[in-house]
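Hey everyone, long-time lurker, first post.

I ran two proteins through the pipeline my lab uses and got sequence/structure pairs for each. Pasting them in order. The first:
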Amino acid sequence: MKNRLKSFASVSLLAFVFACGSQPAAEAQNPPRSTAGFAPTNLTGLAMATFAGGCFWAQEEAFEQIKGVKQVVSGYAGGTKANPTYEEVADKTTGHTETVQIYYDPKIISYQKLADIFFTASHDPTQLNRQGNDVGPEYRSAAFYRTPEEKKILEATIARVNASKEYPGKIVTEVVPFQKFWPAEDYHQGYYRLHPENPYITHVSAAKVEHVQKAFRKDLKNPL
């Protein structure tokens, strides 16, 4: 527990210096967006999991590291406006939160394992409407379930983690039914790998990804 808390504390401190969402000026003026993000074209045999845990750059890369995960798409969910832009979500006018949609092979990795990663390693689920210095409802923690079984898994995982005292506070993650996922602009997709020099990536996102790598070493596509 102490290592986990120390890791999240370091990320939170660094987040006060950098913020998620910066992009090249040209992209900001005319952000391209495909109709489905970078989702797999063939969904046969794949299932989907949808989680929100702060800046989607780190969440996307962290889950991309896991065996059985085919693809992760950054986007927005939990709000009311159709096809929102990053700027609209950041302005807190849509109700959406930065979200990742995970396409995975349930024969290789379970929904339970993804939930374990989400609640214990990829972010701090006890922070309300924020992750570090990324503050606002667009950074709130949320888990979107598609079936009654997924809801049970999420609620049971929260109860188990709370009982374990892994965090000093209680988990505040919203557990809500999945309705619609809107892919983010193309420049957000794969941002972690495409912009390793970005200060937010090097000082904030990298620590979150490394935390998942260490906590779930046996589940990595390429074990450390």
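...and the second, right after it:
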Amino acid sequence: MSAPAARKTWLERLNHIDRRLIFVIVFVVVSIPMLLKLTSPVKVSHEVQIAYDFIQSIPAGGVVMFSVDYDPTSAPELQPMILAILHHCFSRNLRVILTGQLAVGMPLGIEALESTAAQFGKKYGVDYVNIGYRPGNQAVIVAMGRRLRDMFATDYRGTPLDQLPMMKNIRNYDQIAGVVDLAHGGTPELWIQFGQARYGVKLIVCTTAVGAPDYYNYLQAKQIVGLLGGMRGAAEYETLVKAPGLGLLAMPAQSWVHLAIIGLILLGNLTFFLNRRAKNAENA
């Protein structure tokens, strides 16, 4: 076989690389920094800083409600956020109410709440309460603004709220300092329309990276008091609370895989042009 033909065969093979090899490359590039637990400094954005400042401004004993509105498909981005903000709340002796507008998200919220509460020695019914899920979305948000017990007469275990020391004086949003909505869909817009606009709820939106741009207009209009977007938003909050977690751990892996993808794109374009030049030389 002649040299040009051999070169052509090599270029064609490289230009039509098996996609499974690309998956392996991505897996290796992501795994190395995660296994080595590499971290990199993260600059905190304005939207995350003001979310942190809002939680920081709540007096000890204040109540923060968490609405868990995401499912396991979005957990890699949103679970580090709820863990970081819960860490901040409990470190400041704030009390927490857990609820959700998405039933499949509740187990994720329960796992984060109970694990973080255990770290700080917090007691159920005194420092935190899980009131569970009710269907209805905006109807639930509106009902809680009138009277919390219209929708949630008991907690998720069936215990009447009046029997829980923490809940005795909490009637509606007036006794709740703020709401943290963690969502992968349009639920934050419901909280803005029916919670913030109607009842003046102070709202922090935590969402996926792809969903975050939809909420910057609400941030500029001061309809929300903070915004965390994607894994980077989680990493920034972990930096502020000095509690490194999956967010900070994922930053180097995310950077490495972006570089790997750029490298593969450049390689694909290079082999394409070299292959075309080889064909032109052969036909000349």
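Reply from user beta_strand_b:
Welcome! Quick read of the second one: The longest helix spans residues 246-283. DSSP finds ten helices and six strands in the chain.
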